[in-house]
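User: I've been going back and forth on whether these two constructs are worth ordering. Before I decide, could you fold them both?

Assistant: Sure. I'll take them in the order you sent them. The first construct and its structure tokens:
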Amino acid sequence: MKKDPIFIAFSTQKGGAGKTTLTVLTASFLHYVKGYNVVVVDCDYPQFSVTDMRERDLRNVERNPYLKKLAFEQFKKISKRAYPILESRPEDAIETVKCLLDTDTPPDFIFFDFPGTVNNHGVINTIATMDYIFCPIAADRVVMESSLTFAGLVNDTLVSTGQSNIKGLYLLWNMVDKREKTDLYDIYEKIAGEMGLTILKNFIPDSKRFRKEGPEDGDKALFRSTLFPPDKLLCRGSNIDALVEEILSLVKAKP
């Protein structure tokens, strides 16, 4: 029996909250490590951040013998090509993936990377078609208040009313500096609870590793890539593996 893909978006109306990085890391971990088939739809019009990242990744593999060898060994091990990245305006995203839904082997997951602003009907209408939305939050008043406004709006107008396909809306602590724990975490977790919003158990720490892309030369480990999973050593302490497992348990996806 053919399964429908699960539509997922890391989404918020605040730019710089880490949604694109989280999209790529999660998609790459699921595709290259966990064995799922993934597609990413880059709706971040007009800059198309994920598409740009894929182009950088391809250039670096072409120029760097270390990455070229890494790509060869990965393909030999998992026999999988890189996941497709499709460009689309937010309002056209569902039409863009229709060709994937009508195949005999549709992907397991389709991730949608939305722009940092959601103040138009096209974006909202597409968000309403998602199965699950994960909203990154950070212990910063501007980011937090913007993210809570977004999550509250989605919850009150789309999830609670049943006027969407959304099965789950979750907040996710991102860029957490464990050395600088403040009472803002407790305050905002209480506020989120009062708004009927759920925060994931696993958080993402603040670390420079999240900016480590494939090197143009040399054999330095990479973390954020559309062609490779996060390096195993760099993955330790990043909570990406734990986050992926929590997401899988929430969406009840089977390999």
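The second construct, handled the same way:
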Amino acid sequence: MLDRFTMPLTHRPLASMARYLSNRQVTPDQVTLVAFLVGMSALPLLAFEYYVLALMAILLNRLGDGLDGALARLSGQQSDAGGFIDIGLDFVFYAAVVLGFALANPGQNALAAAVLLFAFIGTGTSFLAFAIAAKARNVERPNFPQKAFYYLEGLTEGTETVIALVLFCLFPHYFPWLAGLFAAGCLITAATRLWGGYWTLR
């Protein structure tokens, strides 16, 4: 819901960082993989309840997620392969963070984590399945032309997900409630994407 407003705000700082990396021969795929590895460190950090360190890993991962695309556009290295590995690793990372909270306190967090992962399946599959069909039909993507795939909007997008992950880390004792609320938003997103995507493709 908020990505159309937040993404334009990040273009200039990401472009500046991308120019710095490009001058040092860093490739977009290298940024993607490093960001993923840094993000995955949040899993053990969360499991051992180092929430501040986990939050830093999460934020660095999200910075890298924006930076690899900016670098690809700047260097003319945009590709389907890059877009594929980027979104694939994103969903693995999101699931890992939720798993980290489940491991931190199984008695309190496991059920909420399972519900949120269930909701993530809905948002992720509806998002990616539509992108495949949109690519085959050459459907335009007016709000996010810089994306490597069709970016299907919804109530919970990248910005809302980052906000949720930050809140989880800042208020870990409220994870079941926060995760439940976010899961509800994700399920609404999945339902609206499935409905809207079906009628768009018809």
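Notes on the second construct follow. The CA atoms of residues 110 and 138 lie 41 Å apart. Residues 3-201 form a domain with the Four Helix Bundle (Hemerythrin (Met), subunit A) fold (CATH 1.20.120.1760).
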